[in-house]
């Protein structure tokens, strides 16, 4: 976290009432987050749902007992009944919504990516600092128990100096989206951005300095000509010497798969598993294990953890544990990876 972000957090939520939260964007992940806030986060209540599609806002608000459903973001930003917002609208709307919410004095949880340009990342960070609000970014993997335990082991010096790291995301297949409706560079800006943050999280204190990326359309080769990319490998070198790889695919037929690994001078930690339970069936044809088909199932506890941490930060007047600066660092790697694909060369990151 930056010092400016840490210095001036205040709270609009007195301890006497729950933190009153409005959702901005009632789509797939917004519905997940709204339900968690309404049902599972202590000290929080869902008071409003905003979505330009009125039916989406109304349906979710009704299902979760939120008193306000609106198609107008301003309705929640001007309301005295709202302390904080969850921004789960499409990626390219995030920065303007962060800036508007901060200007209105609302604490902000924003899904990744917080911004798709570094200038916008700086704009969001500055707006939050100026307003003294909590700004948390949705890098949920940090809250997954295995990844959190891996970081604790690294902090306890059990791994020694990190030398090789890896992080991967494979979305569940078969891939059914229309590639023409997926914004260009999504694999870096919205998928691998999780892995870039994970690599930084698992290599604490180190700065990414050099990025090289290779990407292709192996899932939908027919869409490659239109710029579609669904498979990528990125190497990231850090200033402590560690060499990392991040990889992603949009279509793993066996389910949603998220894993990480840190190999160091003193040992190794691994985290993540695609298994939906720890049950293994042993039968005449061998072993069978069930895999998760959705991120919201595989990482449910991580989503609960990040939203609980957000509410705790507001209630205790402390900075968010995943900051705008963290979002900026992950974005800087994503943008370098895009440039590397464009040029075919490694890209150095500015100090
Ligand atoms: N952290 C994670 O694990 C995770 C998982 C999925 C998605 N995401 C991120 O969450 C964001 C949303 O993804 P999604 O899959 O839920 O998308 P989605 O398309 O299902 O939902 C987006 C919703 O936002 C609404 N919307 C559009 N413009 C809006 C605006 N200006 N204000 C308010 N609402 C608006 C849409 O009508 C829609 O209901 C993306 O940035 C995505 O990368 C994060």
Features:
351 residues; alpha/beta; Rossmann fold; Dihydrodipicolinate Reductase, domain 2; 2 domains; seven-stranded mixed sheet; six-stranded parallel sheet; 11 helices; 15 strands; 27% strand; globular; disordered N terminus; binds nicotinamide-adenine-dinucleotide; NAD(P)-bd_dom_sf; oxidoreductase activity; Oxidoreductase; GFO_IDH_MocA-like_dom
Report the total helices: 11
* Sheet with the most strands: spatial strand order: 12-11-7-10-9-8-15
Distance between the termini: 17 Å
User: Radius of gyration, rounded?
Assistant: 20 Å
Indicate the overall shape: globular
How are the SSEs ordered, and which strands pair?
Layout: H1 3-7, E1 19-24, H2 28-39, E2 44-50, H3 54-64, E3 68-70, H4 73-77, E4 84-87, H5 94-103, E5 107-110, H6 118-131, E6 135-137, H7 145-155, E7 162-172, H8 186-201, E8 208-216, E9 231-238, E10 243-252, E11 257-264, E12 267-271, E13 275-283, E14 286-291, H9 295-298, H10 300-316, H11 324-343, E15 347-348
Residues 24-30, 50-53, 56, 73, 88-91, 93, 111-112, 138, 140, 190, 295 line the site of nicotinamide-adenine-dinucleotide.
Structure, explained:
- With about 350 residues, the chain is of the alpha/beta class.
- It folds into 2 domains: about 5-140 and about 300-320, NAD(P)-binding Rossmann-like Domain (Rossmann fold), CATH 3.40.50; about 145-300 and about 330-350, Dihydrodipicolinate Reductase, domain 2 (2-Layer Sandwich).
- The chain contains 11 helices and 15 strands.
- The strands form 3 sheets. A 7-stranded mixed β-sheet has the order 12-11-7-10-9-8-15, with helices on one face.
- α6 (about 120-130) packs antiparallel against α11 (about 325-345) and α8 (about 185-200) crosses α11 (about 325-345).
- The longest helix has 20 residues, at about 325-345.
- The chain is globular and about 50 Å long.
- Belongs to the Gfo/Idh/MocA family.
- Keywords: Oxidoreductase.
- It comes from Rhodococcus opacus M213.
